[in-house]
Design goal:
The protein is built from twelve helices and no strands. By secondary structure, the protein is mostly helical.
């Protein structure tokens, strides 16, 4: 699923050296030119730890290492460990979505570094993903009791993965990812854009997460769902309603992932075909111009002979 986009990830040059070189360049891309860019301080950027979703730590010890497991069956302990991992990684994913929105998209727009049209090409339906996954995360956390033990996960997964909006929004975002990364790469040649990105990336809340690394997160996350759900299913009590429900969710997310692959491949094929047609048209125009130029000396020579 990620193969299409690997070649579009930007080179890992030293960002400061890159910006220094950009300052000597006169190239201008599709960005707003409504005045000089004034970099905002971290306090001015709409990011705050008061948003509990931004305070999620990268590392989270296994559930079994944090709570007493004396009276719990070994299989259930393993199940709780995987469920805790599922919930924690969903929190991390939501945090990254919020960083995309609050640390990059909104500041870039507020300072007129990019136009709304360009923002839409890069971030597209990011706001819809944030709200959708915030709701999912809240539902997951609501299942945990005082020691974060989860009795039943199946209905929560069913509610999320059976929601038509989930497949619609994730497919929409994944189809656009190629264009999003290409636009980002093209506009890195612009001094204002690259300089402002450095300021955004230096915010401590971003934890060294660059825009080019955050943009593929939704696609990466959806590929991990089947792996985690399969592990949860493995340690769920056999022949139980919960096992049946989680198995159905596993089948559902695999189907969704297959649909995403097909839609992304189809969109990529159309993009390649469109690019090929554009090159062919360009070659034909160049050939026609070349023919005209070749005929000009003959025409001038004939005129010269007639005059003499």
């Amino acid at each position: 699923l990620l193969t299409i986009h690997e070649e579009l990830i930007l080179d890992e040059e030293d960002p400061l050296a890159l910006v220094s070189a950009l300052r000597r360049s006169n190239s201008v891309d599709d960005v707003s030119r409504q005045g000089p860019v004034t970099l905002k301080s971290h306090q001015e950027v709409n990011l705050s730890l008061t948003d509990v979703d931004l305070g999620t730590e990268e590392e989270n010890p296994p559930w079994s290492a944090r709570f007493c497991t004396n009276n719990i069956q070994p299989e259930d302990v393993k199940r709780q460990d995987v469920i805790a991992e599922f919930i924690h990684t969903e929190k991390l994913f939501l945090r990254n979505l919020i960083l995309l929105q609050k640390a990059y998209q909104e500041p870039l727009l507020l300072r007129n570094v990019i136009t709304p049209a360009l923002s839409n090409r890069v971030f597209l339906n990011l706001a819809a993903l944030v709200e959708m996954h915030r709701g999912f995360k809240n539902d997951l956390v609501g299942l945990q009791n005082g020691n974060e033990y989860v009795e039943s996960l199946g209905p929560c997964l069913t509610k999320f993965f059976d929601n038509p909006g989930f497949q619609k929004e994730i497919v929409k975002y994944c189809i656009n990812l190629t264009d999003s990364l290409m636009v980002l790469k093209e506009n890195m040649r612009n001094t204002d854009f690259a300089t402002f990105l450095l300021e955004c990336e230096s915010n401590p809340l971003c934890r060294r997460k660059h825009l080019k690394e955050l943009l593929p997160n939704p696609m990466q996350r959806v590929t991990k769902y089947p792996l985690l759900i399969q592990q949860i299913c493995k340690y769920t009590l056999p022949e139980s309603k919960e096992k049946e429900t989680i198995s159905e969710c596993l089948t559902r997310i695999k189907t969704i992932l297959n649909n995403i692959n097909q839609e992304v491949a189809k969109a990529e094929s159309q993009r390649i075909e469109k690019a090929a047609r554009a090159r062919l048209l360009s070659d034909n125009i160049s050939r026609d111009i070349g023919d005209c130029i070749l005929n000009v000396p003959v025409f001038c020579s004939d005129i010269k002979q007639e005059v003499s």
